[in-house]
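Table S7 (text form). Paired inputs.
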Amino acid sequence: MKKRITAPREVLHELQQDYFICTKCKICQAVHVQFCADSRFWRNCPSGTRFRWDAYYASGKMEIARGLHIHEIEPSDSLRHVLYTCMLCSSCQEQCYEVKQLHPTRVFELMREKAVREGWGPMPEHEPLRESMEKNDNPFGVEAAKRGDWAEGLGLKRFPEEKAEVLFFAGDAYSTDPDLFPAVRAAAQVLLEAGLDVGILGAAEKSDGALMLLLGDRDFFETYAFENIETFNSLGVKTIVTPDAHAAWVFKEEYTRELDPSIRVRHVSEVFDRLIRKDKIKPVKEVPLRAVYHDPCKLGRRFDIYDPPRNVLRAVPGLELLEFPRAAFNSLCCGGGGGVPYAFPDYALWTAKERLYEAEWVGAEAVVTSCPYCLQMFRKAVEAAGSSVKVYDLAEPLLASLGKEV
């Protein structure tokens, strides 16, 4: 039997009970309304809300899965549009699972894998991402040699020449987008302030492959997973810490089958929370800010990481923590999920602007989040809307409260 590299492979028909049982009750089309006081914010599905056809909601895509299974329908451009405008945010599954124990998000992920295997997915606009992966080991067109530039001057150890207990994995977006360098530098600096023994791979860091998996290309994802697992297992580290919510997702959910079981995987929000509780870092400087925290889909609904980032923000003196009407398990996607921005940028921006409107609704001066793609989408929305709302990574107000600058 061939050894599996990552999580057990599934194919769409293995979830046939889910899409045959779905009764189109439409509970997947709204948030848990008992936790959202204003009906203006009851909608939860970006694609269904934007395109206004049942096919774009989870119930419609479940029917499409059934139709593909029984060969009642064939792949088409319109079907592909339905499938790749889904942000895979799992809000539909959040609603459905508690009532019917169905897994619509998993169905849609496997529909994408089917599309890639059969040659009708992903979108043509996604091809440059794949080409860049093959050329640069990242999807965003940045030369591999520049991947460690964000860490210049921080004094972080470099693997494999040096040894350290903690591997800090920056991730694709943080290490290639200069606008995100202050955020990732802040995260690394907080860990250093706590006295942790931290190292990075620098230019040797390769893509985690998460974006390829989101698009349905599991084979390509696994080539990166395999290389990374071999690298991680060879470093002798005790913990992998990443600020990238998507990297945390694949490391925790996909890599752990073959990753050395002695290695812990943590998102920085979990580490920051623990460091504060253990008095390893002490936020003392006031950061006067009315901020609302946005839950990244891959941290919140995927791993129930809701409290740690909020605990961090509550520990920052002078920061007033607000909540979105759609908060925690009810959160609306930022617009950056599922590879959508690279094929449908206008629709992705439309979603981000809706979330920005919600931040302004509660009187927030700033949005704080823990995902690079959320940061990118909020900043695009702020620019497009001419808003005065600031956008920060979780590490930035925390570092400021420690009296440090990036």
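Next pair, protein 2 of 2.
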Amino acid sequence: MKHKLFLLLIVVCTSSMMRADEEYVIRHYYDTVIRTVTDTVVRTEFIPDSTAKQREVVIPTDSTDRRGHYIQAHVGLGYGSLGYQLDGADNRVNGSFSALLQLQYAYYFHQNWGVAVGLWFTNYTSFAHIGGDYQWKDQTDTDYELHYDHTASVKSWRERETIHNLGIPISLQFQMRKEDWKAGIFAALGVAPSFSVSKKYKVVEGVIDHSGYYPAWDLTLTDMHEFGRKDYKDAPQSKGQLSVRPQATFFADLGALIPLTKQIDLLVGGYFNISMNNANSSDKADLGWKDDTFTFMNEYKGAYATTLANGSHPWEVGVKVGIHWHYIKPDKHEMEDYFEPFMREQTRTEYKERLDTVLIARADTIVPEHIQQVAEEVENFNKIYFDFDSYVLTKKAKAHLNSMAAALKRVPDAKIMIDGHASSEGSSSHNDFLSKNRARAVAHYLYCQGIDSERIIIAGHGSRIPNDEKELEALSRDRRVEVKVVHNDNVVIEK
């Protein structure tokens, strides 16, 4: 009997202890929470989008295209002559220095071929040398009574003959130059209608011994007023005008093109030109001289106008340099349409107004281990602080967010709740605006670091939820954003 009573007492005590354990478990499944819910909960998503815009683009002109318009300026220096000869063993004609100035317009209808027209100014100079003995039979002396034979012994006679021509060169041109060449090739063939703007002769040296043989006396007189040595270089007949007709001048150029800029080439080469028709239009007369006093001699108008001169074809050959300027169209400026990408912010607003003390029954929620781990990492730097009245991320805040983004990238299925807060300074409407923009700034930065917008939920609470840190700088701690990992709409780690 005593044993039975003892066993009953043990059963009753054990039952009482079990009920006490069950009550302890039930109490710890419930918690009393004072929760302040914002008046407005804003959820923001960032969606890729683009907007149509216009911008100016520059289309550069192809500077390797050799076609188009050219201005060409040439300067030449060489040797030239009036291109005629004098009969007689003691007579000769030499050439002399010549110069050329040329300006022309060219149009290249092909990369290598073009046509040109312009103006040139050039000169041709010859020195006529006359020598020997010249005799005129049956001349009458100044008394008009006696007849004699006049002999002129030319000791030295040299005269300069110069014509200056203005021409209109018309040519076919060829050029070849590639971009990788240091120099190109230039050639031209053409005809230049030319006419003389100046045509003069001048005796530079003219000394002649005159003598007369009188058959009636069988006497040769050498030292009388009609005869003797005479110097004609300063006589009126020692200079005058030549008679020259217009010419059709054939010309040829050959040289190298050296690029100076993309528009300018330097020409270095040679040139040659010659009149294709006889330029001498003089009324030719026999060679003769007349001084200032006596009229018994033939009038002298230069060696060019004597019967000793044959056909005249002025020519010159020399070297030239020039500049070829190529007109290149300026670069085109056009407007083009393009689409500029940006992140469009889509906001959803939920209105909830309540402040209450509630008893929350905690459900047995099983959080996956990898979600729990990332929540613990985010917890280490989940508070982002801002300066007064600012929602600009500081350098320290960006460093925290970089660490947070690195942790979230490893767990693509972890979502986060971003809560923005403000301190109690200022109006409630301004604090609402400030807290929302702080949350948006954090969300946008994480999005830029590669966190999908579908994983982000944001909310702004104004100044209604002060921080839970009891510190002297409490207001500065209120200017914050808190980031928490959520799973199945529940915060994984909640203090």
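The longest strand covers residues 184-214.
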